[in-house]
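Incident log entry.

Two folding requests arrived from the same account within the same minute. Monitoring flagged them as a possible duplicate submission, but the sequences differ. Recording both here for audit purposes.

Request one:
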Amino acid sequence: MERQSASGDVRRAAMSSFLGSAIEWYDFTIFSTAAALVFGSAFFPAGDPTTQSLLAFATLGIGFLARPLGGAVAGHLGDRLGRKTTLLLTLSIMGVATAAIGLLPTYGQAGLVAPVLLVVCRLVQGFSAGGEWAGAALMAVEHAPTHRRGLWGSFVQSGTPFGVILAILVFLAVQIGLGADAFVAWGWRVPFLLSFVLLGLAMYIRLRVAESPVFVAVRKAKPTRTPLLRVFRERPRQLVIAALTFVGCNAIGYVFLSFLLAYGTGVLRLDRGTILLVSLVGGVAWCGANIVGGALADRLGRRSIYVVGYLLFAAWAFPFFALVNTAAPLLMCLAVAVLCIAIGLTFGPQAALFAELFPPAFRYSGASLAMAIGSILGGAFAPLIATFLLAETGTVFAVSSYMAAVAIISLVAVLALRERELGDMRAADERQRAVSARSGAPVPDEAGR
């Protein structure tokens, strides 16, 4: 009976984390998609389309600036009060901020007030996202058997492409159902308002998940008073490495998620439906690659899978845009599918990797801060940088050079990882889980049951 209860906790934790991640990325994807397709004309003065796109992508990047603050606050709460309580808070904030965007006035209705309100909502989104991912990742990973953390953690990561896929499907349905004119006029608001439905489902499941058994042991031993300070004092090297391992994946991910939409519709003159369908293919490939990457990381080590992924990024950066430039849907699908396999190999194992770089007492703070820093350095302004490079050079292969450069930066960080150090942290967590078991908290057996 105890094993069945523990197995249920593992599954519920994984599903809760999956849905939380899906909502986070549904929210961010509908924002980035709207920024590429609508926000330039809806929230900014009429003028040059490139300038409008740059302003819209700037609002996308601004949200990342709030992530470190959100990560610091949520990390402190998560390390002191618990993973579950903090996750309920971050999820609620994210859902409300996203739905609010669907109710904002446009520039034509409210003038400069409109972009100001958009930036405020984006900052609130960024604040909540700064703490959501780490908590969701830790709930899944700390409930899982240590030798299957890559696999169970990959479910959290798979929430990202699932959220992307869902957002794309909603945008396609709204555009096809309403038509292009109605979509631009008001239809773009529908995906934002639907966030409330996803929020209710995720809250229902998250309320039924038990607290992390690793945190139960931390609470029993008395939580640390200053988790964030301990990150800087005791794990500065791991913080830098974790952040840099995410830079390439995040930057290239946002080239795929946002810049490609603007490039496909604005430069290649493809209709929105075609480019969204191409993105949908990428999302499916990304989802599958996450699971494969996480499972392989359990067998071959985190470092090895990351190395393969970043080498693939560097090698594919130029063929990617060569295929995209054909404007042939099948070749574009091939381009994004291979790119998203590389994303999955460097994103799927991330939950397990970040958890194993920091001790349980300040793990939430360390993982949140590393994610936030990596996001700022990587994806925050990636669409803006890509748009600027294209405008200044006149060739999209300047964006390929940017993609290869950030991949190499992250590859260097990955090579600095020490598998033995990760193994030592897994052993320490096993001891914490034993404490939880003695205190009466069910712990899954080594088969994951």
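Request two (distinct sequence, not a duplicate):
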Amino acid sequence: MAVLDVTIVNVASPAVRSDLHTSGSVLQLIVAGYTVAYSTLLITGARAGDRFGHARVLAIGVLCFTLMSFICGMAPNSFFLVLARLLQGASAAFMVPQVMSLIQRTFEGHGRARAIGLYGAVIAIGAICGQIVGGLLVGANILHLVWRPIFLVNVPIGVALFALVLGFVPRRGGDSARSFDLIGVVCLMATVASFVIPLVFGPGLGWPVWSIVLLVLVVPLAVLSAWHERRASGRDPILSAEVVGARGFVWLLLFMVLMQSSYAGSLLAQALHFEAGLGLSALHTGLLFITGGVGFALGSLTWRRFPTWIHTYFMIGGMLIGAAGYVIMAWSLRTATDPASLYLTVNFGLSAAFGYGFGPILSMALSHVPLKFAGSASGVLVSTLQIGQLLGIAVYGSIYFALVHNTSAKESAGAFAHTLYWAALACVVGALAGLVFIRMIRVKEEARP
């Protein structure tokens, strides 16, 4: 549900604007407010799981998310919809990190690998289905509710999920010794917000001065946050050194940012070219993305069936195949032709390659973090994936729009091709970061007695 709600609203935004008579800026808050709240509170939500118990916080998060979805669907005006979307994103931030924490605490070995594979498949399916389901629900105009079913559809799903969490998720008490480190939480949230808010709202507003100021503030806020975390090292800081200071962890995060940003940015570039350049509908574009979702899900579900020694090569190979796939995709659509079988095949192949790399990277990240810090690690990893997605949308969206001065198919095709070339370069750099990470892990393992 959390992933689905990131994309499903995009399709319904014209209907929301027409029905509620909102301005462009308010509509942007409705669409992006969810993402801002979600990204900013992820690490705090992960710590809440450590403190009060992951199953308990997951159940509360699901319940609140379901309630906020109902309020979104019944919102009488734009004010209530914006407020409910912000609270919906906050609920997701307390819900999503618990999943990865529970995977790490509940499973080991092949069981953990299988659970991570399913996690990756669900993310892929949710991201792709958002646009398709949104288009179908708005087009069906169920009970003349127009856009409201895109939120109300979460209610029966959320109720069923809440019952499943209560009935089947192992209940372990939280660690009352874990604190919230209020100053650390505020510093971290300010750092993330200063980075996320400009990425979400800056491109659509033409990068106003305030967005640049916030981005500049990210560095001093990050330094302040790091200084506080170092001082609080003996008092359970919100970001423990055992997580972010683990050998190779920074290179791992760089790999994840480059992989996620290139993938999310390329999807945006494809959607912009298909809809604005070629005149395809949002539903048609969503249907074209199905092969990519299937490929990513396939890779996420089957990587563990291969010998363990090859898993690290999936990381590197996935990024390099992705880079080659972007180049081929750009070449195949360079003449402003409609997407054909070559596009569908390439989209399936590069998405599968990313799926084969996604599972091993999460598995290795969790395996090198002590179980006590499962929540912190989950929060950092999920936040990294979310920030990578926002970064990709902002950067690659800006590249595309900088090269498009009208909506002609030919010019859009050229901008699309150049955008994918940059995505390919990011994949190559990501592969190099992955090599450094693997090398550092091997050195650490060889040093063990």
